[in-house]
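pinned: reference chain
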Amino acid sequence: MSAHARSKIPPGSSAPLLTIEQVATSLQVSKAQVDRLVREGCPVVDIAVPRGPGRRQKRYLRFDGAAVMGWLESRTKGGAS
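pinned: its structure tokens
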């Protein structure tokens, strides 16, 4: 497993962050649908990985599973009212 694919634990949290693939699997949706949720405001952690002198940092999206589920629940309740 590469270094960027490993789960990370954010400061002040005991749960590791999830990759887009892990979120898609847990929600039983495609990665494209997870991208759409991010554009709609789904909570995400943007991790920058240094690549070398003169090169842009590579960006990786990671997700806090509890925050994502809370966001989805609030959207569902808000839409049902």
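why pinned: The chain has a mean pLDDT of 83. The beta strands are 45-49, 58-62.
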